[in-house]
Here is the input.
Amino acid sequence: MRSLLLTVFVLLSALLAPVAIAGNPLLVLSYHDIRDDVAPKGDADGYAVSTQNFAAHLDWLDGHGYQPVSLQQVIDAANGRTELPERAVLLTFDDGLSSVYTKAYPLLRAYQYPALVAVVTDWVDLAHGKVIDYGPRGFNRADFLTWEQLREMKASGLIEIASHSHDLHHGILSNPQGNSQPAAVTRLFDPVSGKYESEAVYFARIRADLKQSSSLINQKTGQAPRAIVWPYAAYNSEANQIAEELGMPVSFDLEGRTTPMPSGLHGLARLLLTDNPTTADLAYSLRAEVDTPALRAVQVDLDSLYDEDPAQMERNLGVLLDRIKRIGPNAVFLQAFADPDGNGSADALYFPNRYMPMRADLFNRVAWQLKTRTGVSVYAWLPVLGYEFPGEKPEANAIPGVTGNEVYRVDFTSPEMRKRISGIYQDLTANARIEGLLFHDDAYLRDTELTDIVPDGNGHRTRQLIDFTLALQQSAQRWQPKLKTIRNLYARPVLDPESQVWFAQRLDLFNLSYDYTALMAMPWMENSDSPVRWMDRLVDAAREHDPEFKQTMFELQTVDWRDQTRISDEVLKTQVRRLIAKGVNHIGWYPDDFIGNHPRVDAAREAISARTFPYEER
Here is the structure.
């Protein structure tokens, strides 16, 4: 009887529990400076919006049914307590510039639009005579809001004050080569000791800064901030956790346009308004379809860039940067591990980590230079199973039954191996800013391997490996949320479905699990006698799983590894043209030999540039 009553109580509790309301999405617009004298296009400050255009934005939003909401309404909707109105919009202003009070605030009052103003508290208290490097010119005390102005705006009930940090809106030394990266997410490198700040010291630095910012805002305005707007939209899960512990459970991103509600309160999407948009520009940004851009990627070996002579290594980097800039792809798959013996597994890594030797502290430097100098998205290319841990017999960690002619792979069902590899992925993103991960082609299982531990049937082994890679993604996202994922896939399981059990790989399951699947469209590697017919068959087979080719990338080979001869530029261009004609969207190749200029720059640009007009930029 007691068991029955308990069951009834549990069922009634479930029925009476509050249910999260599936509501309308939230649009957040991100503004910075509002000035009268902003050039129509091409202003020196690309983030400035003219007063006239800002007023027109409010008028257009009001006339097209957009409903302004406050931060409190967002918090309530995110927690499922209420529903946002249709076309809900929140306005945010970053950096705490004086124009928020002199130009934006009068218009916000006229339209009764609430807004969130994020201030760098060190800049609000900027000493007279001190100058902040703010893009087009140095900004001084007069360029920033005062506490008196902030109190007045807050008292109106329209403005809520958020933290933009106390003093994190700048770069700090991020590697031995001298790069500067956002202070909120970068482990400070000390050139004297040659060491990075520890995790504990980093946490203490972030906590002290946010605590000071929150305390000042509370002291000066009478209310502590409930939101953190990270400088440069650079944040990580640990920093968000610190902010939440200090009373700031809301944070914002600069990715996407809207956030579905209910939702988590960290990483809310924001649309950054740049180049002084007119209402027509704004309308287009809000209404245009958000399509996945066609991926044009080159895969780069850091082993080819590495040199024992640091000066030569810098020259090699210069060659790579110049080549990528001239070709114009939109993604680089950058090797993060060292494989000097070419056996397909990692002997060392190119970033500081807890488990493997570091051949050189190089990945952060190259990734940052590629991102900032050429504008590409950088995906870290890293093994899933192929790690040769130093000082240990390889057979002690290997998958039982691996034959001598297979790539060396560790047993991913071992708790110790899972811990180490997860730690490597965490250490990668603690050290470098990237857009995504490329899981290496070593993530496969033969049908004779782990048969007693990982049962077969209905793709179970494939899902086991997928689950492991997604766990690695989750580990990496501790330091960098929202990482995209790409997984290498051999062609044979696509062309011959019966061979799926011999690889534990399936295109349909990969496309359900990752942002992209990098299908290894390499006919010479597969010993094809007719590469053209082979490629056509592969396209047709892949189309059955991805009819519009939204996720399947065709990764070509530039070298015939059987005899180390180069695939000619004309053959590569013909392959790309044929793939595009058949509807393929995403194309890449490996290796991109930047030292040997293969494919030649002109041919590479013609074949794989992501520019609308693939001509060299001058």
